[in-house]
Specification:
Radius of gyration: 13 Å
Number of strands: 4
Number of helices: 2
Helix content: 25-40%
Strand content: over 45%
Distance between the termini: 14 Å
Order of helices and strands: EHEEHE
Largest sheet: 4 strands, antiparallel
Shape: globular
Mean pLDDT: 92
Low-confidence stretches: none
Structural class: alpha+beta
Length: 96
């Protein structure tokens, strides 16, 4: 099992409940792909480096999980079509 991190930038145009549902959906996608969520960091509302879809701010979430090598591709395929997520990135963490 490898350690991965999924970074999500969620739209500010949705309410708190919908934002929480988006993060829960991302966690369930990870679990369905065969991964296990180990930690979720909520960084809150931050200014974006550049404007995306006429938004200057977004809510940042970092989800750490363990999974096999095929897991990130399956997760990205599902997260890509989530309407509330404006940017995402899944990276493998270095072994400590």
């Amino acid at each position: 099992m490898n350690k991965y991190e999924l970074a999500l930038v969620v739209s500010t145009k949705i309410d708190d409940d919908a934002r929480a549902k988006a993060v829960d959906k991302a966690k369930s996608i990870i679990e369905k792909a065969g991964g296990t969520v180990t930690n979720v960091d909520d960084w809150g509302k931050k200014r974006l480096a550049y404007e995306i879809q006429k938004m200057k701010e977004g809510y940042y979430y970092f989800i750490q999980f363990d999974g096999n090598a095929e897991c990130p591709a399956k997760i990205e395929a599902k997260v890509r079509i989530m309407e509330s997520v404006i940017r995402y990135l899944c990276v493998r963490q270095d072994a400590e």
